[in-house]
Amino acid sequence: MADSQLLPGSRSVAQPHARHGSLPYVWLSVLVVVLDQICKTIINHSLQLYQSVQVLPVLDITRVYNRGAAFSFLGQASGWQRWLFSALAVIVSAGVVFWLHRVDRRARLLAGGLALILGGAVGNLVDRLRLGHVVDFVAVHWGPHYFPAFNVADSAITIGACLLLLDAWLEPR
Question: Which is the catalytic residue, given 60, 104, 154, 167?
């Protein structure tokens, strides 16, 4: 079987002797981490904690800290959650890098989604290790009803997950 061919029913995972997988997509992960950290640095230097600036009637830029996971899950715990979520981010990141190594380069949606998830996980991991919390600043709301604040890394993870779902949906059976 030629290097460029895939196993039947598997357009995403490369043959064992396929060339280098999709590790070149890691540039997208690096871009997410850099953009995320730049935005968080600007927010930390421009706004006080809980200070808010209205951008649109439904969008504020508000500096908040999240010591938990998504939607502040375990945010009120005594501090152990920092290390739990850091360890999970390291494990997930290692798994994603391994998966990227195995993904065929032609599976662009899958590789792009994985790279976005990796960048988002590492972006938030940097905050947890450096600051002890994640800096969130995008606050979307409808009147008095607010969606939990998020950041660039969270957005990358969400978009990456959507790309994985789209890839799974489009994959031929």
Answer: 154
